[in-house]
Amino acid sequence: MNKIYVPKRNMQLVFASLLCCSCLFMQGNAQAAATTPVEKSKVPFDQTITGTVKDAATGEPLVGATIGVKGFSKTTSTDVKGAFSLTVPDKTPALVVSFIGYVTQEVLIRDRSNIEILLQSAATDLTQVVVVGYGTQNKKDVTGAVKTLKSESFNKGIINNPQELLQGKVAGVNVTTASGEPGQRLGITIRGAGGVRGGNTPLFVIDGLPLDNSSTGGGGDPLNTINPQDIESIDVLKDASATAIYGTRGANGVIIITTKKGKAGSSTLSLNSSLGFSKMARKLPVLTAAEFRAEVPKLGGSALDDKGGNTDWQDVISRTAITQTHNLALSGGADKLTYYASFGVQSQQGVIKRSQLDRYNGRFNATQKFLDDALIIDVNLGVANTKQVRPPLGVGEAISNNPTYPAYNADGSAARYDNMTNPLLNFDLDREQIVTNRVTGSISPSIRIIKGLVYKFTLGVDNSTATQDFVNKPSAVPQRDGRLETYNFVNRNTLLENYLTYTATVKAHSFSVLAGQSYQKFFIQSRSSSINKFPISPLDPIYNPNQGQELTLANNRPNSGATENKLNSYFGRVNYSFDDRYLVTVNFRADGSSKFGSNNRYGYFPSFSLGWRISEEEFMKNSPFSNLKLRGGYGETGNQEIDPKSTQPLFRTEVTAANSYPLYPTGAYPAGSVFVRLANPDLQWEKSKQTNIGLDFGILNGDLTGSIDVFNKVSSNILLKVPPTDPVQPATTLWANIPNMTVTNKGIELDLAYTKKLTKDITFGIGGNFSYIRNKVAGSPYSIIASGSAQGAGLTSATVNGYINGEPVGTYFLKEFTGFDANGISTFLDKDKDGVVTDKDRIYAGVAIPDKLYSFYLNFAWKGLDLVANFNGVSGNKVYDNTANANFYKLRLSKNVNVTKEALAFTQESINNSAPVSTRYLKDGAFLRLNNLAIGYNFNTTALGISKWVPTIRLSATGQNLFVITKYDGYDPEVNLDRNIDGFTSYGMDYLSYPKARSFIVSLNASF
Questions:
Q1: Which of 171, 268, 344, 796 has its CA at a distance of 20 to 30 angstroms from the CA of residue 820?
Q2: What is the pTM of this model?
Q3: Which of 250, 251, 270 has the alpha carbon at shortest distance from 260?
Q4: What distance in Å separates the CA atoms of residue 724 and residue 123, rounded to the nearest whole number?
Q5: What's the CA gap between 952 and 539, in Å, rounded?
């Protein structure tokens, strides 16, 4: 067999050319000889050293840590309590202590007994394991844009879902908590919005199971059934060279969630309990009763309607909300079996009365080894039950109601008025209730066929069922009959995967080859029913629907629907490393989706990336860099997140004059059918092509680490509804790919982290990230694709933003407010100078999506005390204050409806002036937020004499959303009400949003 040797000098030139597009000339280098400890057999081992090894952050014992004598080969390991005993020479200079996932530490010997060794997590160390999809890599070998977040770095506070754990933690990832309501969906994008429709959410993968992004009823977040306490790490795959392994579902990035596993040799019982208190963070500054009494008479409208009260209606609808969270976890195992089991309970009240989210979670993860470890079976099972109660929001009444009207009668009951709605009455009569049950599970046996070759099979199921009830109780005053609407949902996601992985190392060459097949099926079903006219009684209609007395098809027609989508895929990857310095990764995936027609059933998505570990070169040995790696990659991914069966024709059957003719000569209309959508078997994926160049570095002996990434992402083949080319068609639109239309996101990302151990007891850290993302739409067949539908009286059909050629996604397209005329009526810019202000005079008035994202953190630890603060912010964006547009203007105040002082800002404005959509209500959306501040103390259980029974006790206090610096005067600048038009995503809309909370949480953690 012929052997081919590649000179190292040539390898350097090849990699430098591909990554930098320039020639980098360098001298040849010699490989340093490795050294091994030399056993000094004649030195007597007659001294005994004892001690414990613990996690520096948590104080938990580390089981299986290795302790060796520096310069000698003799070692020992810690037991289940983290304790060790080791005989050493009399003049031992130091111990060398190591543990997987922690920084190796040398410990000088001063005291021969009870040495406490605290190891720092290797979260920034190059040996950190990164999950990259269908496998793992050491951080030093990763060539794509991948960020790993471990549990100790997660955000603190009241957390409902995994997205909140990483908010502000990863450059290029924008997490928007658009509502303060418990359990509501979070918005999340990675490196900008890649399309014009709702499919901009990244793919979530939990323990190897790719999820469906659909929520199971109620529009809540599909991930709020996952207990954040069960999550060990989150890996974010940002560029296409990393996400292409997921093909059609990787265009918007991939977030891989790994839950906790047990460790061999230990048995741990952990208890975590917390109690939180939340208040409305900011109230809208509406007029007080005294201000209201003073301002209404000045307007000369209706006479002041004064009931003598002094009511703050926002206080009336809100409360101090209490959140309780309790989690119990058991983990451990032996050499062949490890396990992790947990049970969690969370009861979270919303700051608006009667709103609440209750969640019960259970999890069991186990790993069993057989046949001399050749066969390994992984089992992951998670179950959850959530109950969300949503009352009528009441914000509209709270900010508009006359503050001189008392909220309560003398007897304490809610006051009733003919000309005003007391929101307390609606809280008693109306609610929405959503109960969701979810089971996620997978079994993954893997078998080592020969050395280096492993076959793995995965069977995964994600099954959710939900019942959503809308309850309107009957009432005498106000008079109403009552109604119950019930919706039942089923979401089932089934996964079957088979893949082979072969790894080998031959001298300086290391490689890993992956090849596999995946089949995934999604089934979604919904059913609905309703009934009217309930008797007034204490019985709840949810539990007594048989009490309803009216069941007519006109008002209570049953409805249902079901879809089934399938995805059949073939994928492969090759990782290659030469001399642990030159790295190559090649991915390929072919996806066939039932969402597309037979003409374009399959899509093909390749990627490649290269890496050069410059710091490993001989000429870098005396440099200040502990790590310096250059990365570059290119990849193609797809987006299939469109409505099912969009390639097929759609009919609608109705009994109306528009769809049928009456029976001759007179009579009822028979059912008639019409085309709603034309077939298009040529429909195919939106595609994204992305290039990425990155640099990872570490200096100051690894204390300062960071990365810089520059990327360019172009999404094409955009899916739109367009008019058919033939004007004589039964339907007005059909789905089509627009070949020349693109959405481009380009930008730069910077991550920095500095950690320094100042003394034996003091550790200090600071870090953060910054992203600049520029977005642009081009090649659209329409001058504007409207989105952002405004709400409120007089604003129906008004649009705020959309998609415009040459402008970013979410650009505001509005009339420019220029002031008032002599009569106090609003004036607007006449852009085309034709003397009439129409929609043709709208201007591009800013962007809803921020182009700059940033965050930073500080942490400090002294002995058992630690403190961490996390800040995050955005800039370059604007928010449309639809709440002010619909509610805060003089005309309403003149009619005894409350407003903010914003409505009185212009003395020349007439009370007859209306408030159309315009730049008058477009506001700066930039902000800086103290997301969370936590202080904790780890008790010295050894000093307390209880370490034998309770190894760790930690008490902590956390403040969440403590302050926000912003010019925006609404409830919160981080808001985005979904006001899409025909599925085109809207951004930056604020209308009667659920207010954000400011929370304080006390937590107690203990292990046994």
A1: 796
A2: 0.85
A3: 270
A4: 55
A5: 49
Identify each DSSP E strand in 92-160 by its residue range: 94-98, 105-108, 115-119, 129-131, 136-138, 146-150
Separation of alpha carbons 58 and 953, rounded Å: 9
CB of 200 closer than 8 Å to CB of 985: yes
Give the separation between CA 587 and CA 50, rounded to whole angstroms: 50
What is the rounded distance in angstroms from the CA atom of residue 167 to the CA atom of residue 992?
24
Selection from 362, 373, 292 nearest residue 327 by Cα: 362
Diameter of the chain measured on Cα atoms: 118
Give the separation between CA 570 and CA 551, rounded to whole angstroms. Answer: 51
- The token duo for 570 is 């073939």
Q: At residue 850, does pLDDT exceed 90?
A: yes
Strands 989-990 and 878-881: parallel
Strand order in the sheet with 66-69: 75-77, 66-69, 94-98, 105-108
Cα first-last separation, the chain? 60
Separation between Cα atoms, residue 278 and residue 347, nearest integer Å: 13
Helix (H, G, I), strand (E, B), or coil: what is residue 996?
coil
Please choose, from the candidates 148, 138, 150, the residue with its C-alpha nearest in 3D space to the C-alpha of residue 238.
148
Residues 102-132: b if buried by 16+ CB within 10 A, e if exposed: bbebebebeeeeebebbbbbbbbbbebbbbb
pLDDT tier at 246, thresholds 50, 70, 90:
very high
- As a whole number of angstroms, the distance between CA 236 and CA 170 comes to 8
Q: How far apart are CA 128 and CA 138, in angstroms?
A: 6
Q: Are 411 and 345 in contact (CB under 8 A)?
A: no
CB 284, CB 887: distance < 8 Å: no
Our measurement of the distance from residue 657's CA atom to the centroid of its chain's CA atoms, rounded to an integer in Å, reads 47
Question: Would the pLDDT of 490 be above 90?
Answer: yes
More confident residue, 424 or 978: 424
Half-sphere exposure of 99 (CA within 13 A, CB side): 25
Backbone angles phi, psi at 552, to 5 degrees: -115, 145
